[in-house]
Amino acid sequence: MIWRIAQRELAGNLLTLRFPLAAGLIVGLFLVNTLVFVGTDYRERKAAYAKQVAQAQERLRRSASNLNKLAVEGPGMLYKRPSPLSFAAGGNEKALPIAVDASRRGGWGWADQKFSYNWTDPWALKYPYQSSRSNTLLRVFLEIDWAFIIGVVVSFVAVAFTYDAVCGEREAGTLRLTLSAPVPRDVVLLGKWIGAFLSVALPTVLGMALSLLIVLLSGQVELSAEEWARTGLIGMFSLVYVALFVSLGLFVSARCRRSATGLLTLLFIWVVFVVLVPNTLGSVAAGLAKIPSGKVFNQQVKLAVEERTRPGGLYDASPSEAQPKREALDRWARYLNDGVDIFSRMTDGHLDDQFRQVERARTLMRVSPVAVYQYVVEALAGTGFGRHRAFIEEARRYRDQISDFIKAADRRDPESPHIYLVKEGLSNRPVSVQEIPPFVDRVDLGGAVAQMALDAVILLTLCVLFFACAYFAFLRYDPR
Amino acid sequence: MIWRIVQKELLSHLLTLRFALGGLCCLGLIASSAYVLTRQFEGRLEAHRSAVTDYEGRLQAVKVYSELGQAVRPEAHRPPGPLSILCGGVEGGLGDYVVFGHGYVPFEAASSGSDNPYLGIFSSVDFVAVFQVVLSLLALLFAYDAVSGEQEDGTLKLTLAGAVPRSSVLLGKYAGALLALSLPLLVSLGVGLLVATWSEYVSLSGSDWARVGSILVGSLFYLSLFYLAGLLCSCAFDRSASALALCLFAWVVAVLIYPGAVVFGVDRLGPAPSDQSVKEAARTFIQEIDKKTKAFLTSRGVSDRWQVWSGAAKSTSVRSEDSDSGTGETVKVTVASTKDPDLKLQRDHYRFMENLRVEIADQIWQLRRDYLEGGPLRQARLCRNLSRLSPAAVYGDLSAVLAGTDLGAHRRFLDQARAYRREVIQYFRDRDAFGSRAWFTDDRGKADVAGMPRFRWRPETAGEAVRRGWGDLAILVGWNGALFWVAYVLFAKRSVA
């Protein structure tokens, strides 16, 4: 019986004007998304990434000619790999920084009659806000990706298909007839739900399948098994999101007497929670806490680094003497390491403050189902702010890894004084580039699932909640 | 008779749930966004004021003119416009101050108030965005059943059975709906402006009020356009459900998808060319400065540039920048007793080199301007022209022009900053600052920076803004006329039997 009601509901939807309009719009947008992705977008980003990584490798090769040079110069720029699944969620990647700078910070010299030393402040992680946007005059405020198509357009279609599912039948008088037969109400509701869900899911799944087909046939992207798994999860959560809006539509329809009221209420909810709230709450949350501007912060860091405590006797002996004294090397190592520590602590802290501000905004935006859905898709696609944060954490782990490597490589040289991190206190032997741990920027499934867990739970809970609401509303619905 | 129809229509709209919901939604969103945007405006204005004060402080500390070449480069600050609360446009994203030098022509601006660039991933909603989305939808919801709904109810037949011309019926419906739509527009705009002007930071001048009035007129044409589009659908279909389906899908495409999709497509399919070639050419130009200066010095019997100071200075400090902008250099000298107390060679050297730097900077700017015109600006213009197919984009652009927050206003700021650079250079030349002793030393008095002209941002007048937005307004008016005419033809031919 459920299937018969679902079939009737599905046929009813398929034969209306709204179905061809919705299907055309959804499939058309999926095609636009994929053609842009395989046309130039991904190819260019991949080529730019390959070029940048090659340049960074070349620089690393030069630094590796000498361990103490590597120790001071650092591994260079660390680039973020473009995601092959960015067609599913662009995640504003073009507006986010593309790299972390792990190179030296500059150098100073000091010379008077007794003392002369030119030193270089050793490398530390710097976080320049350098995005890959080619034209800053264009205000790209919308990305046609799966997250937008499903988050905004498909949810709208779900609203358009469900607003009159119950109250429309009451107005037409058919609901009374249906319920006069020995059919339990939950069966009727489930049948309607399945019918409406299929009406919305069909063009959505068709669009996703076409999109994947074009991506595969283009030869631009080779998806690994893990990326296929992530794509599968994106598809699954997209259907959960569709189910959420179908349930919401049925709930509102079962709470209204007239279909016009149902439509208005749903449109109101949709416009507020899907279109306006995600845009407004970001700026609201951002204004809740102030952090110093980049200009002010840079001055603070400069001052803190310049005014750090100088170890006593720093200028008594220079590390650049032919036979440098161990005390001189120790003092300078302490002085330079302090500089790196202060710089890193302040720079990391400032970035963390900026991230906290964004996280606050994202938390507040979770009142909107479309924002929650977007976070899930971005986590699985390996794009967006969450991914950028993971990239920064990976770069910080790499910082420790490369420091450990330099210390270990230095220990292998018996001629080195083993004083980290003053140039003259470290080995001057060359290092094989193959030995240097590479920076691996990757998105693993486990990390993506952990990142999206909260949002996935919210999405599933909302879906169940709205279905339960629709069920109870329909049980009490007066069909007269 | 028309007035009676208008009254009936107005009343029937005012008493509906859609009017209440739409009006409340609009009012709530405008009031909340007014509060948020006013806070943001206050922050931006504070940042602007503190940046100007900071700059003035640095300027006061200047001892030698050459510091203005690089260490304390002249700046031009643009205060945020209070009408950015109504329509943010591109003002927040493109920066509010430029730094330049006699050796560097500015082509882009920086932001003085951006404390967290990551917040750029969030967009914000201003008054115009709320009207764009909420009121256009309300207009369609008012219109989709205006004719087909009345026909379904049977009231249209009764109305037309009387001696009322169809044109009067249609005009009456249109006028009644427009009056009903203008109510939430006026009330929410009024409340929004009240919230905004409550802040001591926001004060609107007469010109600003004229601009608000122009935006209001544009908004009315925009709403009227959507009502007429809905009316047209209502006249074209027998069933109001079909009219509604078409209206809603057309609205989603025209308001939510198309304007953004155009920018997305242009940005992704044809990214702006890199400015690498300009940078390389600029470096070659800058090398010319060294070459020609060397030749100049050779002609004066000096083989090395640094020998200029030989015997003339106890200590020198030169800070120069090795970049494609070739901004200039800061020279600070403690002058020793020298054979030539007038330091003629040194002064001639800098007079020659810094004048040459001005020329080279102008030549680099020509290259940069050609690049901007052929690349990024061409792309921006393409986007704007393509997006004109969407009334929402036309309305957004028109409002940004009237609010002074569009790309044109930003370019005007950059043009004024470049003109200001010429004024500063003229100021230097009037005092022969490049060839003066005070270019590199303050042993006989500090450089006269107090008299240097200061930048003053001159926004467009309301009349100029209206003239610039005239094209967009004409498009909205044209759409209105065309839609009304088609709706009238369909209604006149419609069978009500």
UniProtKB/TrEMBL annotation, chain A:
Keyword Transmembrane helix attached: yes
Pfam families registered for this protein in UniProt: ABC2_membrane_2 (PF12679)
Superkingdom to which the source organism belongs: Bacteria
GO cellular component: plasma membrane
Transmembrane residue ranges: 19-38, 140-163, 193-219, 231-252, 264-289, 452-474
Sorted UniProt keywords: Membrane, Transmembrane, Transmembrane helix
GO molecular function: ABC-type transporter activity
Name under which the protein is recorded: ABC transporter permease
Source organism per UniProt: Handelsmanbacteria sp. (strain RIFCSPLOWO2_12_FULL_64_10)
Automatic annotation (TrEMBL), chain B:
Membrane-spanning parts: 15-37, 118-144, 174-197, 209-229, 241-266, 473-491
GO molecular function (one): ABC-type transporter activity
Record has Transmembrane helix as a keyword: yes
Pfam (any one): ABC2_membrane_2
A cellular component annotation (GO) from this entry: plasma membrane
Protein origin, superkingdom: Bacteria
Keywords: Membrane, Transmembrane, Transmembrane helix
Protein name: ABC transporter permease
UniProt lineage: Bacteria, Candidatus Handelsmaniibacteriota
